[in-house]
Q: What sequence folds into this?
């Protein structure tokens, strides 16, 4: 006989119906207190639910309900989360989505994850049939992407950078403030010789971070010659070694504004026998798995939460101001890679 109380997966409505010897519709009615279900049957269903430790998903009641024989939607709490990128790019924006889903859960909504590939026709037959209450867009969003959904006439919020010329609702990190914060953090430690490292892939936030860094250095420096800045794109191990062993370019602090650029720096430092913060300070922008590295947090989960909050206010018509951008202030998570600048007489390999 099959044991219905011990399972390798969470119980579902079919397990409850099987144990209570009723239909799944009866289980739904009994759990929701709707429909004509006898007290005896309700008790049997609830007893089975308790035995199986079954709890309906709080958003299950929010699925679209259609009038019989029509396409008229009578209730929905469906939100679309669209990732826009080139074909073959596997950007999931998982951390941003985590922030979104936390608000989805709290507000008893449902979310539909839909990647959109640039240059390919977008088709949404399920949404076209049932409809949604709002959209969250992230990735390479421009006016052409917004035009895809214009006919829906539902609130739309863009998360992160975008290239739209039309007025839009946008939640983004204050990337300009990121650059200023990075310089301030290292300047207060005594650094005046900097290496900026970015990726060959061009993103708007990189430009904003670099602009913030440059402006803050100009404000901090008494004269242009009072500090050294080496700007390097797509740094590899050999390039890092060359910079670190040349007295003319050797920095005391390295700032990376793309997380993937941190790896060759760490490999190059290891090859030269250098350690942070003994021989140089390392400050990175992005979410790194190595908690020892001092980082400026991109706040992507908070971006997701605030984006969802804004979308809900727009859906409920509680937000009356015009479209615009809301910026989230950056924060620094202290690790073990930032400290005062070293003296250049340390007997590490490559240093004279």
A:
């Amino acid at each position: 006989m099959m044991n219905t109380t011990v399972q390798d997966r969470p119980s579902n409505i079919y397990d409850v119906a099987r144990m209570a010897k009723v239909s799944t519709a009866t289980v739904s009615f009994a759990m929701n207190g709707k429909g004509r279900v006898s007290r005896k049957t309700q008790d049997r269903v609830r007893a089975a639910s308790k035995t199986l430790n079954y709890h309906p998903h709080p958003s299950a009641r929010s699925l679209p309900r259609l009038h019989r024989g029509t396409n008229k939607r009578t209730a929905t709490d469906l939100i679309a989360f669209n990732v826009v990128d080139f074909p073959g790019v596997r950007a999931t924006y998982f951390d941003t989505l985590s922030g979104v889903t936390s608000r989805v859960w709290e507000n008893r909504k449902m979310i539909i994850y839909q990647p959109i590939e640039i240059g390919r026709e977008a088709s949404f037959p399920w949404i076209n049939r049932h409809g949604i209450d709002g959209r969250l867009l992230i990735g390479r969003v421009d006016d052409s992407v917004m035009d895809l959904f214009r006919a829906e006439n539902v609130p739309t919020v863009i998360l992160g950078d975008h290239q739209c010329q039309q007025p839009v609702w946008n939640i983004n990190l204050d990337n300009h403030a990121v650059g200023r914060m990075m310089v301030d953090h290292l300047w207060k430690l005594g650094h005046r010789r900097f290496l900026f490292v970015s990726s060959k892939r061009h993103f708007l936030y990189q430009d904003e971070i670099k602009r913030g860094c440059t402006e803050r250095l100009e404000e901090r420096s008494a004269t242009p010659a009072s500090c050294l800045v080496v700007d390097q794109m797509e740094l590899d191990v050999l390039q890092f070694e060359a910079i670190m062993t040349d007295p003319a370019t050797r920095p005391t602090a390295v700032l990376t504004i793309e997380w993937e650029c941190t790896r060759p720096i760490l490999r190059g430092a290891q090859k030269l026998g250098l350690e942070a913060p003994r021989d140089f300070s390392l400050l990175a922008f992005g979410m790194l798995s190595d908690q020892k590295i001092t980082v400026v947090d991109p706040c992507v989960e908070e971006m997701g939460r605030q984006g969802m909050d804004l979308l809900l206010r727009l859906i409920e018509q509680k937000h009356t101001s015009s479209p615009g951008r809301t910026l989230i202030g950056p924060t620094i998570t202290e690790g073990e890679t930032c400290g005062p600048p070293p003296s250049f007489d340390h007997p590490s390999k490559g240093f004279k």
